[in-house]
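WARN no homologs supplied; continuing
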Amino acid sequence: MVVPAERIEGPAAPLNGGMIRAVTFDAGHTLIEPRESVGEVYAAVAAQHGATDLPAGELERRFHAASHARGSAVSRREDWARIVDDTFAGLLAIPPSKTFFPELFERFGRAPAWRIYADVQPTLEMLARRGARLGVISNWDDRLRPLLAELHLAGWFEVIVISCEVGCAKPAPGIFAAAAQAFGLPPAEILHVGDNWQADVAGARAAGFQAMQIPRDLAPGPDRIDRLVELRHRLEQGKE
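OK structure emitted
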């Protein structure tokens, strides 16, 4: 259960690859993505509980509207329950929080619901060979650590900072500061990579980090890559 990336962009900023000692990544839509759309999963689980013929596309639209209406990162189980209830509002006699929400919540907390992007493993290997320290900074709930472990990704990361644990969410500077403190590095020596311009790029830069966006469905630009493996080229360019 994840909120789509914002496509807002701002002014380009040069990447100083020679300073970078650590690289942090957003999780959803940067390292991993749902195997099926949220709407498809919601429709399938609802059908198993007797609510047939609910269009997956309509549930997808409703989910994103409900998520956007919250206006902030969702880091608690009860927040997700409200979003799911809002998604199905007017479609069911009994809200999902009273019926099948636990099944949905559990499903998105397990590895089979997620796909690791093909460029993730080669990129992590490349960065590790270069001596970069690696981390995750994510707006997520308490399912992320076990999920990353189940996906065999957790072992790559020296630092994992999650909004539900630090009490603030990207783009707030506090979550980035927590990562810098955990690494014991100045923020300027850390590059953050994520799909959301406002949360990942603007937020990281406001906290003193370097940053790069990977929206994956937009053409590459000065601050944008469409594949993580392009980081090697950008880091080399930044040293010139």
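Residues 56-70 form the longest helix (15 residues).
OK
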